[in-house]
Amino acid sequence: MSETAKPTAKPAATPRQKAHQLLQAVRGEINKALIGQQAVVDDVLCALLAGGHVLIEGVPGLGKTLLVRALARVFGGDFSRIQFTPDLMPSDVTGHAVYDLKSEAFHLRKGPVFTHLLLADEINRAPAKTQAALLEVMQERQVTLEGEALPVPQPFMVLATQNPIEQEGTYPLPEAELDRFMLKLAIDYPEAADEVNLVRQVTRSAQADALEVSQLRTLLQPKDVQILQKITSELPVDEQVLDYAVRLARATRTWPGLLLGAGPRASIALVRCGRAHAMLRGGEFVTPDDIKACAAAVLRHRVRLSAELEIAGQNLEHVIAQLLEQVDAPRL
Amino acid sequence: MQLNNAQVVIRPRNPWEAADLGIHFARQHAGLLLGSMAILLSAWLGLLSIVLYDYPGIAGLIFWWCKPLYDRLPLLIVSRALFNAKPTLKQSLRELPQQLKAQWFASLTWRRFSPSRSFDLPVTQLEGLNGLPRKQRLQVLSLRNSQPASALTLVGFHLEAVLLIGLFGLLFMLLPPEVYANWDWRFGDWLDDESEAHWLDHLSNWVYALVLVVWEPIYVACGFTLYLNRRTELEAWDTELSFRRLTERLQRAAPLALMVFALLLPLSYSPSSQAAALCLPPSLNSTPKAERLLSQTLTSPAAQTSIQSILADKPFSNKRIEHELKWGEDQPKPKSKEERGTPWWLKYLIESWKHTSGIAYVAEVVLWLLVLTLLGWLLWHYRRWLGEFVGRLQNIQRPQRQRPSTLFGLELDSQSLPADIAGSALALWNSDPRQALSLLYRGLLVHLLDQHQVPIKSSHTENEVLGLLDQQQLPALYRYSQHVTQHWINLAYGHRLPADRVIQQLCQAWRTLEARQAGASSATPREAHA
Predict the structure, then answer these.
(1) What are φ and ψ of residue B144, in 5° steps?
(2) Residues in A 135-164 with any Cβ partner in B closer than 8 A
(3) Nearest CA to A150 among A140, A160, A158, A159?
């Protein structure tokens, strides 16, 4: 992960530029469907490039599900959606063995996780045991059914959504589950001008009040995504930048306002996400700005605010912003 | 106040006995007390309910807040009844406005929550004291019996609550279950219908008024008896009463004694004295100074003269003159010129000032409140301006105070930089290009910190520094900084060397920048170091 290139005066490699162009096209296509949420779209694409999973949090009606549908549309791979409900069982997610009367044998029925893009809608509505069914597939990219480890197709990405205001009848995600999400994105209300555009577009649509994704072009195939991920993972990261990412993650562990700091997965996610960010902006290498840009999304679900600050009404975003202000940028 | 007419036995009691006496007293005059209170409270609450029909909560609050004023009616009755001058219902109601007027504002504001309200009320209402005298009086009175008075208020508070809850419970028990089956039991939201909810809130106000009708007279009577008890102790009323009783008894016995004396008097007189009394001419016998025994050798004037002379001599008269020194204090001072010259109007003002110190105190409080409110309003009104002003001050001070000595690991001390940065960078370029570019970037940062007070912190990345500079509206400097930063980032994180001509262009641009800066201000730090 830490490669230090020798100082050269060579021009940039062509595949990267191609990849960048492709990504720009994808970004433009998704932004056609999801209006006024450019930052969230960028972050989701970052996660896709970095091979991570995303947890999207926002009040109802901001287009969380639409974003995933648009991504699935632009991305030609398989897409499946699980609506998490309180009575959902782990086998409904992963799959199970059924007895076939004709052949008098058990057959494995694969669950909806065997797909490229998995939308776990309202993930906190299912109890912890069902949420835990995703643990293995998110980390290992495989599902163990009847003692048999079955790999899921590559690339594999989980996009989960949850609603921050309704707390009744929901089950907060456990730390282990949260840690497996590379990014937690907070989707906010669009700007006034964007909202005007959005309303104009939706009211023109044939469907009742949904934005259509059917007119979006399919630009990516699963294989392309794998190539993009490979190119991304090869972006050079300077030692200082790597050190900055690790220092950021470590700072959360001793930060006075935080009860729980981020683990090593956060440092890893920071660097991978920084690479993806650099890729998305068309950079040839990772700068401290790339790391800093995705630090909030990477850290926000991995730390927990101390009780004193919570009582004092302090915001987690505010504390993370303070932390980013205090940790020194890379030194050379 | 005629102590003789007191309807209770006046003697020192312990506080609880005194409070008990109050309850007994209230019971004795229950009819008048309850009746007058019921009339007063129902009239007042009725008025409030009509005026504030849509705001039953506010009506209830006002009704509760004015409680100290209601106390005055029972006190009026109780105090009169104690000395056997119990007023009728009509009289007491007629006198009420007069009683309410005195110090009503104080009672409803800073004395509203006084725990010893019932104990202090007689001082205000019966003794008519205000201001400093009232304070001194209460200090003396409160040395004892004020704690029981506070306890009485506390008990009253609980008793009111108990009675109120009890009455509500009773009302609720009388309701058939069908009525409240659909009630939503959240506070203040019992019924769906707005108007019915108002009706219910008003009912609760009336229930509270009913509680007050019963409890308030008892409370006031207890406070009054506590006050009486304290005064009995202080002024020894019981002793005074004993003396008065003694006097009465003696006065009753006096005519009899006189008659007996008159009857016995003739028996005690001797016949000779009777004769003398009868024979002497009234003119001669009328005064003791009249000259008598004029036919004898020693006449009465002669005897008197000799007696006078004997009495004037020793040992009857022993005159001597003593001299001693005394301080001049005892002698009355002659009135100073100023005092004699004090004009009558000043005296009048001072005198009237003494009496109006209470009003002055109120005015002082009101004025201070006005000043504070005005100050708060000013702060609130100009908060944005103040915030900007303070923010700007901090902005100005920050670069000087928080100027980092190293940034991104680069030494930023101006003394660590060579005098001619561009020349040194060009010289270094061939041997150590990284060092050369670092020198240019460092020079730029020092320039930004020193000349433009850009608030750069250690946590700022290169692009963030550019962002800060963008806010400064310096297009030429921004363009140059963009170039330097871009090449610096490429070299530092991407390990990409810029072309030779690039470094020459950068050095040239830096020189231009320096020249322009020198033109703008004749003494830049760079030149100072040079």
Answers:
(1) -135, 160
(2) none
(3) A140
8 Å CB contact between A27 and A41: yes
Residue ranges of chain A with per-residue pLDDT less than 70: 1-13, 166-167, 205-212, 331-332
Pick the CATH number of A14-222 from 3.40.50.720, 3.40.50.2000, 3.40.50.300, 3.40.50.150: 3.40.50.300
Is 0.90 topped by the overall pTM?
no
- Please list the ranges in chain B whose pLDDT falls under 50: 190-193, 271-284, 396-401, 523-530
Pick left, alpha or beta for residue A5 (phi over 0 → left; psi -120 to 50 → alpha; otherwise beta).
Answer: beta
For residues B182 and B180, what is the distance between their CA atoms, to the nearest angstrom?
Answer: 5
- Measured between beta carbons, the chain B residues lying within 8 angstroms of A238 are 492-495
In chain A, residues with a C-beta closer than 8 Å to the C-beta of B492 are 238, 240, 332
Q: Residue B256 class from Cβ within 10 Å (0-12 exposed, 13-18 middle, 19+ buried)?
A: exposed
Handedness of CA B332, B338, B342, B346 (dihedral sign): negative
Which CATH number fits the domain A235-332, given the four candidates 1.10.8.80, 3.20.20.70, 2.30.40.10, 3.40.50.300? Answer: 1.10.8.80
Cα separation values, B409 from A24, A239, A329, B291, Å: 35, 14, 9, 135
pLDDT at B507: 85
B493 closest CB neighbour out of A9, A286, A325: A286
User: What confidence score (pLDDT) does residue B65 get?
Assistant: 92
Give residue limits of the domains in chain A: 14-222, 235-332
pLDDT, position B489: 85
Of B299, B280, B275, B358, nearest to B107 by C-alpha is: B358
